[in-house]
Amino acid sequence: MKTKQPFHHGSLKQALLDASGALLDQQGPEGVTIRAIAREVGVSHAAPVNHYKDREALLTALATVLFKDILASVQEKLSDKNLPASTRISAFAIVLFEYAMAYPNRYRLLWHTGLVNHDDPELLDVMDQFYNACRAEIAGAGLCSEQDTETYAIALWSLVHGYTDLRLTGMFEAKNDTISGRPRLEAMLDMFLNPSHAKSP
């Protein structure tokens, strides 16, 4: 008869995060509980407290890992220094949107104020890195003449979040712009970043 090997201190912490991510994908944010995670990992219900004081702490740690993944994807896209300014700025929106379409429950967790502590220093740091990198690209493109970079970034942030949420709820379908033939989000970003490209049908 095989006996279950005890977790080392570091490996249990990672196992709890891995199990949280799997449960999140399967059941959504509400399905990720300390008891369910402990059951998945095969430890007592009290064991996770040695690493995460409560459910919010664990989900905040998971959200931090997920946001780091998103930031890494953006940085990979921006590694090509020859990309046009509008393409570089669009990368932030497109990466976030594609992530939401591929992992809707992970995306929902990132903004779930009832489950995630958005004042957590590590999570704040990675979110600030994402946002500040976006503002830096906007400033570098010289797009802001009558508004500051923060207003421009908030407008971009609102555009992508609004469209993404409407897609996730099924209010909008996946369609292409009938004139340019481009996916709807890409067409909206082009209209936003290059107003001269917008024209009436």
From TrEMBL:
Keywords: DNA-binding, Transcription, Transcription regulation. It comes from Sulfitobacter marinus. Pfam families: TetR_C_33, TetR_N. The keyword Membrane does not apply. It comes from the Bacteria. Residues 33-52 bind DNA. This is Transcriptional regulator, TetR family. Residues 10-70 form the HTH tetR-type domain. GO terms for molecular function: DNA-binding transcription factor activity; transcription cis-regulatory region binding.
